[in-house]
Amino acid sequence: MGISRNKATYTDTGIVNYYTGLQGLQPAEVAILERLRPQLATMKMLDMGMGGGRTTLHFAPLVKQYVGIDYSPGMVAACQKRFSDVDHPVRFEVCDARDMSQFADDSFDLILFSYNGIDYVSHRDRLSIFAEVKRVGKTDGYFLFSSHNLQALEQNLTWKKQFNINPLELYINMVSLGIFWLFNQTLSRQTIADSDYLIVRDDSHLFRLNTYYVRVRQQQKQLIQNFSDVEIYPWNRKEKVVAMDDRDMETALWLYYLCRIKG
Ligand SMILES: C[S@@+](CC[C@H](N)C(=O)[O-])C[C@H]1O[C@@H](n2cnc3c(N)ncnc32)[C@H](O)[C@@H]1O
Q: Domains in the chain, please, with CATH?
C-alpha cells in the first residue's frame, strides 16, 4: 500500500469519527497558542488538515478569521456538523494541501498543519506544500506544523527500548515491533541510520498509513528557502528546544516547528 492510499484511510468513517472525538491540545500546542494569544484576534488563520476539528475548538474562537481545510470530504462534513452552531465564523473546505489554488497569495497570518498531517504525502509533495504555505501566507506570518522524528523512531525500534517489566505491556510492545518489521520488510537498521528521511508503515491506525519521518537537521534544511526563525518544541512539553543536544529531540516521536514566513 503506497502513500497515495493514505487519503482513503483518512476518508474512512471510523477514522473520521476518531478524529471528531479528539478535544485537547498537546503541551507544545498549548505553549504556542499562549505565546501567539496576544496577536490572535488580528490574525486570519488557515488550519490545514484540520481533521475532526480538535484545533478548531481552541483557535477558531480567538482568531479574526478561521478557515479549515482537509482533503478528506468526511473530515470537512464532520467539522461542518460539529461547528454548525458556534457563534464565531468558521469555514471548512475540501482542499488538498498540495494545491491550494483556491486561496490567493498573501492571505493568512497564521497557518497550522497540526498532528503531523504533513507526513502523509511524498517527499516531493511535502516540498511543494512548503512552497504553497509560503505563497498563501503573509510575509512575517507564522507557520506551525509538526512532523515525525526519525531519530526517535530509530531509538524506539530496539528490543531494549521496548522492554517493560509488566508482562502484558512487554508482550504488546514485542508484537508491535514484530509487526512493524513485517510491514517494512525492505527496511533495515542500516537504512534507517543512513537516512535523513524515510516513509514507513508505523503502528498508527493499525498500520494503515504510510508516514514520513525526518531528522531535525534535514527538516531545518527543507525550511530554509521559505521560512526563518525556526523554533522546535517536542510535542509533549511546553518549553522550546534551546540546544541541539536536547535529549527530547531524540526521544519525542514528533516535534512541532514554529516558523516565520519569508517575504
Ligand atoms: C493526523 S490527522 C490530524 C487532524 C487534526 N489536524 C488534529 O490535529 O487533530 C491528519 C489530517 O490531515 C489531513 N491531510 C493529510 N494529508 C493532507 C493533504 N495533502 N491535504 C489536506 N489534508 C490532508 C488528513 O485527512 C487528516 O484529517
A: 3-148+215-261 (3.40.50.150), 152-201 (no CATH)
